[in-house]
Amino acid sequence: MKNRFFLWLLVFLVIFTLMQRLGKPAESPTTFGDSNLGMVTQKTEYQLGKEIILTMQNNTDSVLTLPSDCPDEPLLVEFYSNGDWVEITARDEIDCPAVLSFEIQPRQDVKISYKDWAYRVFGEIGRYRIGVNATINGETKIFYSNDFSVISRGFLNNAWLNFIYRPILNTLVFLIEILPGHSLGLAIILLTLIIRTLLLLPSQRAMRSQKKMQEIQSKIEEIKKKHKNNQERLAMETVNLWKTHKVNPFGSCLLMFIQFPILIALYYVVKEGLNPDKAILLYGQIASLFSFSGISTNFLGILELTEVNFFILPLIVGGLQFVQMHLALSRKGKKSESHAQKKDKTLVQKAQGSQDMQDQMAMANNMMKYFMPVMIAFFTASLPAGVGLYWGVSTSYGILQQFVINRESSREADLDEPMVRVIDKKKP
């Protein structure tokens, strides 16, 4: 049980660290140079579709005011073709702010992201540069960034995009289109139910496996005590016990690993996928029907799904996770336990230190029951609320499944309990 807790902890840390690292671009590999306006991209090579970030630094002692190009893409983007630099243009259907300029303070820098223009502006493989027409000390000239390249996606990136990200994006977009009010929240809920239903059979097996592991835990501890000085015999007896009871020791973590890529994909869809720039990733029929401008990202008037919610949603999701952990780690019930567990307890108590083993099991259970919800709540508070909504609905689905598994386990225990029949002898 303790090993399972640390496995869950490891999975959580991997997911959280990966999401945090993927959300942060790499540091700039080049320098700004000595010009009055330094412009440099954070990398010199990007895979197709990746976010390009430009850093602009004001190297003068006065405020630098630059015009905004809204609703076109920021600044001047040029593509190298047939020996010449060609301007690339794209336009958004948005309302621009009244003030069409931005300022860079003396000796300060600003970052400009092209994550919403990755396909419309940088959609061809080749060399690019970014420029701006600026007036400094009465002189107007065009300042350019370093050249950088857009290259083809790698094999893994292509596999991720076509087999995980695009199906999630297209399913969510289709649901948004057909649901009332084009609600992102309702679409996420329905998408979650679809995914969990598709995963129903493997998740049922995982939950049954976890329940059986609880039931044979005392026998496993007895084997550990009996063969503590013979690791080979200990491993063999443990495997035989698993086979006898048809238990997969890692079955309870199966659902987490299956949902891991789905969770990552949904994170990126909610964070940056619901944008006209990603229309190129929609399947033909869906692309012809859908408009990104009509999406309602506010759920029930209280939850903005594209932003982080620090309090209410993490508490709800953490509470749901606690309920699921409590059900998953709970015993079958007093009636079924009275016979099935008594025999095991009697055997265990014959060995020295049996109470210590039971205490360790209880401690590991409590660590999972109370620590996991805290981790999940912290996880939810660091991601867009749409991801938290998915996790909350998925956990609610899991709670209903766990109720069913617990009832099945109780019925099986009742059937296994021996019936003692007392026959009264008649007097002669």
Please tell me about this protein's structure.
This protein is α+β, with helices and mostly antiparallel strands. It has two domains: 2-18 and 157-411, no CATH class; 31-152, Immunoglobulin-like. The protein is 51% helix and 15% strand. It contains twelve helices and 13 strands. It has helices at residues 2-22, 155-178, 184-198, 200-215, 217-226, 231-244, 254-273, 284-289, 312-329, 334-349, 354-380, 385-416; strands spanning 37-41, 45-47, 53-58, 64-67, 76-81, 84-88, 101-104, 109-113, 126-136, 139-144, 148-151, 298-299, 303-304. The strands form four sheets. Strands 2, 5, 6, 9, 10 and 11 form a six-stranded mixed sheet that branches. Strands 1-3-8 form a three-stranded antiparallel sheet, with no helix packed on it. A hairpin with a 2-residue loop joins strand 5 (76-81) and strand 6 (84-88). Helix 2 (155-178) packs across helix 7 and helix 10 (334-349) crosses helix 12 (385-416). Mean pLDDT is 81; it is low at 333-355.
Give a brief description:
This protein is of the alpha+beta class. The chain has helices at residues 2-22, 155-178, 184-198, 200-215, 217-226, 231-244, 254-273, 284-289, 312-329, 334-349, 354-380, 385-416, and strands spanning 37-41, 45-47, 53-58, 64-67, 76-81, 84-88, 101-104, 109-113, 126-136, 139-144, 148-151, 298-299, 303-304.
